[in-house]
Amino acid sequence: MDFTFSPEHIALRRMIREFAETEIAPIAAELDREHRVPFEVLRKLGEIGLLGVCFPQEYGGMGAGEMGYCILMEELGRVCTSTGTNVGAHIGIGAMAIHLDGTPEQKEKYLTPLARGEKIAAFGLTESGAGSDAASVRTRAVREGDSWILDGSKVFITNGGYADIVTVMAVTDPTLGARGGITAFIVETDWEGFSVAREEDKMGIRGTSTAELVFEELRVPHENVLGKVGEGFIPFMKSLDMGRLTLGAACVGGAQMALETAVRWAKTRKQFGVELAHKQSVQWKIANMATELEALRSLVYRVAWLVDTGQPFSQLAAMCKLYGSEVASRAIDTALQIHGGLGFSRDFPLERGFRDARIGEIYEGTSEIQRIVIASNIFREHGVRIRP
Amino acid sequence: MDFTFSEEQEMFHAMFRDFSAKEVAPKAEELDHEEQPPLDTLRKAANQGFLGATLPEDYLGAELDYVSYALLIETLARDCMSTAVTLATHVSLVAMSILEHGTDAQKEEWLPPMAAGEMIGSFALTEPDAGSDAMALQTRATYLPPLTGGGQEGGMILDGVKTWVANGEIAGLSLVFAQGPVGVEAFLVPKDATGLTVGYREPTLGLRSVTFNTLYLESCRVPEANRLGEPGEGWTVAQRAQNRMAVALAAAGLGVSENTLDVAAQYATERVQFGVPIAKKQAIQSYIAEAMGEVEALRYLVYHAAWLADQGGDFSFDASVVKAFGARVACSVTNRMVQVMGGYGYMEDYPMARKYRDARALSIIGGPTELHDIRVAQRIFADLDLEIAP
Question: Which of A66, A75, A231, A364 is catalytic?
Fold first, then answer.
């Protein structure tokens, strides 16, 4: 057993913390207010190699592993959930599918510019009738010579409004469904037949693009099939596993910020003649926040270690996402409550944190889906197959 | 025991629903997104008598009992919590304080225009360093000596800063609390009083159509006739107002909870995932069923507290119980109903997100849950002969 971070990872965290404090924290409120995606931040993150933090160096990555990626997401989550979401959709699910299942040619062509931040990726799975029920995808792909013709639409796609590359899941054989009938494609968004139909107006993570994508007779060359024809569900599910872990890491950062803010306020704010820190109802809140945060932190970095050492991690990744999103929501709710009226004001960052944190329990598989995944895995070991 | 509404209460309830459907629901989303106070709705509410809801007819009030009034707030909050809180601030915090503590002359002067909606009331208690701790008030009331020879009344000079004043910028009359020579005093300060400035409007997470402003009192001159209650009685005025408001806010929590439960349950019958409406999933059934239990418990706690208020006795304990519970229920129910609607619950194109943001206010405004918990505990331990300081 060894629970220490390597010197490289400690240095990496220091570098990211400094970047986050100087480049992101000062603009986080503005991104939310103006509903603006921080392209300049994404470009700088790409320039210093962080958008390829976990990808191999031969494809422009930093090679810092899942551990490094979790450190990045924790530090981003600490200052700005929107930026963390943009980066997570780009690395964790958009580019990750290409990293996991792409051919050497696909990686050379697509992963390298994504790792360097020269291009931005999105992940096209959700449809209006297929959210948590990913196997109900309706977008169709029909083979035509050396190409596939895509028709359909995707909703709630993070980074969708400006991504250069979208990995899209489409039905190639309706008779087979999720078992052999769904294929993943790498789509360049400047191809004819691709369009962005609308941008969503969301309660939080307002510094992100959440878009509806439409494909009309979109021609995709066969060489852009990701993985094998009919087996698109597998790389998508693997990417989602990774995404769940790193969302948990971002939640460590969000909960950490909430705790730091609450402690700072409780130290200085006086009511009834004493600092709030002396009130037991505040002490209890702080103690619970800190305990949940430490449990989450240990879980997240243990799973990162499992990934980096090639061990199974899917079950624990679902737990990271489930527990992480609920811990972060509770922590920010508690910090807001400790601040009273100030917490409710948009002049202070907790209000934004409260709106931002709420998405964690919804996107990339709701808490309910995580519970189904976790329970299914447990019962499968006991010979019982669970249907959602 | 009788858990039925009177015929009159049923009739009022139908009238409230009709009004809310016609006047409140259609405007709620836009008012929130544009952060506009519901001025047009207030005018129409005044025509119905709602702005003098619990005032006697002598003062142009509708003379509603408190149970009917709770139904009014609940019904408005189903569609728009901002409108409900704006109206409750006017009625429960300000108009009823004047009715309970005012002289005949004060009642004659202020209540008819308030009931007619010509003058909206705001409540100025909180200060930057005195939120829950009202004894820490820094705003000062200094008495001027009567002018010699002229026979002119002396009056008071108010100095201080009030924050989070609900209805601040839309008010014609502000109920202001300050430290006087013998304790806290309450003053009726009209908006055109010399030295009164309405300042910063708080940008808020929810209740975005309620105007919460900072009030500056700089040598603000108020005649002695505008003091509400006896010298030193201000703290009682504030506490009684907050007790009434606590019940109203709990009723608002009931309304928003019921509504989100209705909307999410309907959605669950329509949203198909894994081949069936999600209503057929046990997890969703639990969310809905647990929320229903909480809503029903809150409902009768609210009506009971309102009924107690109608009996004329002290209902401060029940007011704190229902306020703390109502805030917890509203936050947890709206939170779970967002979850039932998944991504659609998070989009500002649907009212669910607004209602979730609005409900969060209930744990903070009108005294945070922690303060009401302390009051409840104080009473419980007082009965056991133990005094608890906050």
Answer: A364
Average pLDDT, chain A: 95
Q: Does B368 touch chain A (CB under 8 A)?
A: yes
B236-383 CATH: 1.20.140.10
Q: Per-residue pLDDT for B134 more than 90?
A: no
Q: List the Cα angle A243/A37/A240 in 5-degree steps.
A: 10
d(CA A83, CA A31): 9
* Topology adopted by domain B121-231: Butyryl-CoA Dehydrogenase, subunit A; domain 2 (2.40.110)
Residue B1, pLDDT score: 85
Cβ–Cβ gap B283/A271 under 8 Å: no
Task: Render pLDDT for A333-383 as a digit per residue (tens, 0 to 9).
Answer: 999 999 999 999 999 999 999 999 999 999 999 999 999 999 999 999 999
How far B303 CA lies from chain A's nearest CA (Å)? 27
Task: Identify the weakest region by mean pLDDT among A379-388, B11-20, B132-141.
Answer: B132-141
ipTM: 0.90
Domain ranges, ordered by start, for chain B: 7-115, 121-231, 236-383
How distant is the Cα of B342 from the closest Cα of chain A, in angstroms?
Answer: 6
Instruction: Give the mean pLDDT of A291-310.
Output: 97
Closest Cα in chain A, distance from residue B57 (Å): 36
Give the CATH fold of the B7-115 domain: Butyryl-Coa Dehydrogenase, subunit A; domain 1 (1.10.540)
Contact yes or no for A345 and B203 at CB 8 A: yes
Position A139 confidence tier, pLDDT thresholds 50, 70, 90: very high
**Which residues of chain B lie closer than 8 angstroms to A354, CB-CB?**
205, 360
Closest residue in A to B281 (Cα) is A388
Asked if B373's CB is within 8 angstroms of A345's CB, the reply is no
Q: Is A66 a catalytic residue?
A: no
User: Closest partner residue to B204 among A131, A345, A371, by Cβ?
Assistant: A345
Rounded to two decimals, what is the model's pTM?
A: 0.93
Interface touch B343/A132, C-beta < 8 Å: no
Of B204, B346, B364, the CB nearest to A358: B346
Domains, chain A: 7-120 (1.10.540.10), 122-230 (2.40.110.10), 234-381 (1.20.140.10)
Q: Which two tokens stand for residue A292?
A: 């949940």
**pLDDT by residue (tens digit) across B232-275?**
899 999 999 999 999 999 999 999 999 999 999 999 999 999 89
Contact A340 B347 (CB under 8 A): no
> Which of B205, B364, B389 shows the shortest C-beta gap to A340?
B364
| B204–A362 C-beta distance less than 8 A | no
